[in-house]
Input
Amino acid sequence: MNTPAATGAPPETRGLESAFEDTIARDQRVEPRDWMPEGYRKTLVRQIAQHAHSEIIGMQPEGEWITRAPSLRRKAILFAKVQDEAGHGLYLYSAAETLGADRSDMTERLIEGRQKYSSIFNYPTRTFADVGVIGWFVDGAAICNQVPLCRSSYGPYGRAMVRVCKEESFHQRQGYELLLTMMRGTDAQRAMVQDAVNRWWWPSLMMFGPPDDNSPNSARSMAWKIKRHTNDQLRQRFVDMTVPQAEKLGVTLPDPELRRNEERGHHDFGSPDWAELQRVISGDGPCNAERIARRRAAHEEGAWVREAATAHAAKQAARTREGAAA
Ligand code: FAQ
Output
């Protein structure tokens, strides 16, 4: 890591900067009250805002199936999962607010395409098997990515991740259990599961971000211990974890290059289409326009709720002030 002098910090912040670096070096937590370099704050706001937006936009692909879930049990489970995602978004927006970000500003930036959300939520959910595969792959990838984030150097982010990961674990299991049930069903159901696996496998690998040699933020974020592993390390972990689960389920992962490499103690696998990831990130995926239009409409339709809540909070505050003055 750069020393304060090397970063060109002005003399008045040098003591603060070395205290910050000391906190990072000793694996302790940086808290909102602590001094932090502007780059650290900006990196966190970028990542946490993107993470929060992903949870909120991520409600859409599965949310579409709530009214069409095949039984009351499946409907209740899916409802609970989608509600959890709203909750995750809210914890994460709150964590970003501890860094001075403003929630309505973040929402504006999302709607205007100035802040990102995960590429994975720009793919369509064609059948109910997609709901199971999202739980298995997408929540499974989220767990791989987020368990290390529980040790992220920024306190509010790491703490939010602890609860989020517990809930993601339930989400992953409900998806896998749904797929096990479908695989015990008819040939048509088994074909539906395989088709969903084929469509979601590569986009799920892309969730971990570009390869390490093309990941501009990784080195800095790892030096600050915001990220604990590189994109490729986490992708590998996900593949290793998922292959035996696919075997147990009885589906084929759509990668002819996928095989166990005993020497490395890992699975070798093919390369995702990185040009596709770039297209989807830059707004040209199958459902980008639809997802943002839906989010924009929900935001506009919710304006009256925000206005009413603000007026109510102002009234309560005035009453408290009057009570204190009496
Ligand atoms: N999609 O230099 P890097 C979930 C951007 S939550 C879109 O490698 P970094 C739960 C990246 O932002 C899923 N953009 O960046 C759920 C950067 O652009 P920027 C979300 C991507 O930050 C389940 C640029 O590319 N999880 O699934 C993607 O070091 C089911 C260069 O990339 C998180 O956000 C992508 N896939 O590493 C919900 C976890 N990949 O910002 C509902 C926290 C990269 O400079 C249903 N985030 N980009 O303009 C992270 O761990 C990191 O931010 C990475 C990217 C790993 C996503």
